[in-house]
Design a protein that fits this description.
Blueprint (H helix, E strand, L loop, with lengths): L1 H41 L9 H16 L12 H13 L2 H13 L3 H32 L2
Helix pairs in contact: 1-3, 2-3, 2-5, 4-5
Family: Belongs to the fluoride channel Fluc/FEX (TC 1.A.43) family.
Pfam families: CRCB (PF02537)
Catalytic activity: fluoride(in) = fluoride(out)
């Protein structure tokens, strides 16, 4: 019984922090998904062509996500990182659309383009993250 009470008390203490975080993640995710869908409608890729819109969305989202640590203002409010990271940028980027586009390329008989797209997306995202980390390290050195 005492163990249950301790667990319950710990849960009650964390609940006020968890619920707002989940709320901002949900709100950010909705905004990110709407932004991604809007860009897809504004810049549609022809069927069977390289899906540049999704590629740019994923690479820019990876870069921005990696840059979150370099923005001091985000440390001032505990809910900004979950809103922007898991929420907005999580809803903005999309592995599921990347997978579906690669599947369509394979169905269309273009395994080379599908492979280039998948490997290229991953490589470009990693390069974006690396560039963001270099920027973050440079910023930290300049603020010392």
């Amino acid at each position: 019984m005492e163990r249950q009470l301790r667990g319950r008390a710990a849960h009650d203490v964390n609940a006020p922090r968890v619920l707002p975080a989940l709320g901002v993640v949900a709100a950010g995710g909705a905004l990110g998904a709407v932004l991604r869908a809007s860009l897809g409608l504004a810049f549609p890729d022809p069927a069977g062509a390289f899906p540049w819109t999704t590629f740019v969305i994923n690479v820019s989202g990876s870069l921005l996500l990696a840059l979150l640590g370099a923005v001091p203002a985000l440390r001032r409010h505990a809910l900004m990182r979950p809103f922007l990271g898991a929420g907005l940028l999580g809803g903005y980027t999309t592995l599921s659309a990347t997978s579906e586009e690669a599947r369509l390329m394979l169905e269309g008989g273009d395994p080379t383009l599908a492979a280039v797209y998948l490997v290229g997306t991953l490589a470009a995202c990693v390069v974006g993250v690396h560039l963001a980390r270099l920027y973050e390290h440079r910023e930290r050195r300049e603020t010392r």
